[in-house]
Write a structure and sequence with these properties.
The longest helix has about 40 residues. The protein contains 15 helices and 16 strands. Helix 2 runs antiparallel to helix 11, helix 3 packs parallel to helix 11 and helix 14 runs antiparallel to helix 15. The termini are far apart. Strands 4-12-11-10-9-5-6 form a 7-stranded mixed β-sheet, sandwiched between helices. The protein is globular, with a radius of gyration of 22 Å. Helices cover about 45% and strands about 15% of the residues. It is an alpha/beta fold. The relative contact order is 0.15. It binds pyridoxal-5'-phosphate. Pyridoxal-5'-phosphate binds next to helix 4.
């Protein structure tokens, strides 16, 4: 390998330089339009590096296996209580390494290998974890794709009722990697009840606008449990979280977390998560509203500049995300590579339109990080000019210097305690 011949001091210097380079890309050179990432509260970031993450955490608060963990177990309790508070839930499971693992925990708590589940397909942003190649398939579940309503960028309720009657699934999932309009949770719950199925809501992306009360609470609408990532719109450390109001499910999730799938877990992450959840307690409503406001304004501004924003009879978006039809740019990943040269970070997504050979047919854009750095409605015309030019120019690199100059005006993290 390349590193085998490299001295330890050289490698150390290289790794440290790469970390600095990454910060330069994300915080100086580029605007991040990718809704699957965010910048953390600097005090949460400091806690992540505070050294408590390497300490043991095995066992329950008040009954830990190793000694000297009084402080760590209090952090664990605070984080779980704040998670339940922010999501208005009775139970929160924080010992979850990622959004993908949150889904696996949820599958294990609700299904047995061999069971059938119904999940949104990729054409409406359905995530691989719900399907054969992901943890659903690895756990032995058989996934039947849910029928799609292109106009809602969601599930076709009428067709779902027929499919559920035929397939008798154990679990139905809602929620995707792009969520433009609220999903029909109540209607899907009714359908789930007709066959005794559980309804899981994957809020990996929209947990922020749910926490900020800009979108309805899926648990209140009828979902039995809700999984999420903690580092996307939620702006916390990389990890997962599950909330539920169902005591029986909470008990099973607890057993899956420990002693099932985790022994020791990262207490530094729990501390960082607790601080990020405090951000939501204090600033959540304002942050969520602003993410949506800026998303709608940016979608409209791009459309006005000739960028083909994906539109349905319901509009372009009600969320912190929207999408661009990417066929004219060679596909979603090709468009993302072009934008990267112009100083914008984004990625492709599936849309319910004609496929693009060898690429995704959509480009996904979101506002969690823009807003966290303080981008507001007044900044949208200048930002949209740069994005549109970056997408359309023959030489997107020529836009990068102007993007970098604008980016320099946003150097403080907002909506943090
Ligand atoms: N569910 C959805 C809908 C996602 O978009 C993602 C994104 O990666 C995940 C689950 C997995 O989350 P994580 O990246 O935290 O494992």
């Amino acid at each position: 390998t390349e590193t085998a011949g490299e001295s330890a001091p050289d490698l150390l210097a290289r790794i440290e330089a790469l970390a600095i380079e990454n910060k330069q890309i994300h915080e100086k050179d580029c605007f991040n339009l990718n809704p699957a990432t965010n910048v953390m509260n600097p005090r949460a970031e400091a806690l992540l590096a505070s050294g408590i993450g390497t300490r043991p955490s095995l066992g329950y608060p008040g009954d830990k296996y190793e000694m000297g963990l009084e402080a760590i177990e209090e952090i664990e309790v605070i984080a779980a209580e704040l998670a339940a508070e922010v999501f208005g839930a009775r139970f929160a499971e924080i010992r979850v390494p990622s959004g993908a693992m949150a889904n696996l925990f949820a599958f294990m708590a609700t299904c047995k290998p061999g069971d059938t589940i119904i999940a949104p397909p990729a054409s409406v942003g359905g995530h691989v974890t719900h399907h054969g190649a992901g943890c659903a398939g690895l756990y032995g579940l058989r996934t039947v794709p849910a029928p799609v309503s292109a106009d809602d960028y969601s599930i076709d309720i009428k067709a779902l009722a027929d499919l559920v009657e035929r397939e008798q699934p154990k679990l139905i999932t809602l929620g995707a990697s792009l969520n433009l309009f609220e999903h029909p949770v109540r209607a899907v719950r009714e359908i789930a009840d007709s066959v005794g199925a559980t309804l899981m809501f994957d809020a990996a992306h929209q947990c922020g606008i749910i926490a900020g009360k800009a979108w309805s609470d899926p648990l209140a609408e009828g979902a039995h449990l809700m999984t999420m990532s903690t580092y996307k719109s939620l702006g916390g450390p990389a990890g997962g979280l599950i909330v539920t109001n169902d005591a029986e499910l909470a008990k099973r999730l607890d057993q899956i977390a420990f002693p099932g799938m985790t022994a020791n877990f990262d207490a530094a992450k729990s501390a960082a998560l607790a601080v990020s959840l405090l951000d939501w307690r204090v600033h959540g409503r304002a942050y969520a509203q602003k993410m949506i406001e800026v998303s709608k304004a940016l979608a409209a501004a791009l459309k006005a500049r000739g960028v083909p924003v994906f539109e349905t009879p319901r509009g372009m978006t009600d969320s912190h995300q929207f999408a661009v039809l990417a066929a004219g740019y060679g596909g979603g990943q090709a468009a993302s590579k072009t934008l990267r040269k112009a100083g914008f970070l984004a990625c492709g997504i599936g849309l319910p339109v004609a496929e693009v050979q060898g690429d995704l047919n959509g480009l996904r854009i979101g506002t969690p990080e823009l807003v966290r750095w303080g981008v507001d409605i007044g900044d949208i015309p200048a930002l949209a000019d740069l994005i549109a030019e970056g997408l359309q120019a023959n030489d997107p690199g020529a836009v990068a210097a102007r993007t970098r100059a604008m980016r320099a005006g946003f150097d403080r993290v907002h909506y943090v305690v």
